[in-house]
Design brief:
The chain is α+β, with helices and mostly antiparallel strands and 107 residues long. The chain has two helices and three strands; from the N terminus they run ββαβα. The mean pLDDT is 82.
């Protein structure tokens, strides 16, 4: 189960506050699918990041009683503006892994 309870999120653009969500409520059960279609810059990635626990809402709560796994928000697997290390940490978080844990590489 994944649930948004009265979730609000906004950003300061430098000149104004841009509201992404305003007290959003929805619940998804295991096996449900969700598609988010909206113009560029309207908050799709922010919502996906909140689902994955990578971004916190300004208000409200996101409840996850499930694993949120890749390819949630699949965009080719990486975010171009992030470094390789940041992308690895991002994908680790999507898989529910500790992004700070380092694994030995076989020689």
């Amino acid at each position: 189960m994944l649930e948004f309870v009265n979730v609000s999120k906004s950003f300061w653009t430098g000149t104004q506050r841009k509201v992404i969500l305003d007290r959003a409520n929805f619940r998804m059960e295991l096996g449900d699918s969700l598609g988010i279609l909206a113009p560029n810059g309207t908050g799709k990635t922010t919502i996906i990041n909140m689902m994955a626990g990578l971004e916190k809402p300004d208000e409200g709560e996101v409840h996850r009683a499930c694993r949120v796994s890749f390819p949630l928000g699949f965009m080719g697997g990486v975010v171009n503006r992030h470094s390789a290390k940041e992308n690895c940490r991002y994908i680790a978080r999507l898989y529910g892994l500790d992004p700070d844990r380092r694994r030995a590489r076989p020689q």
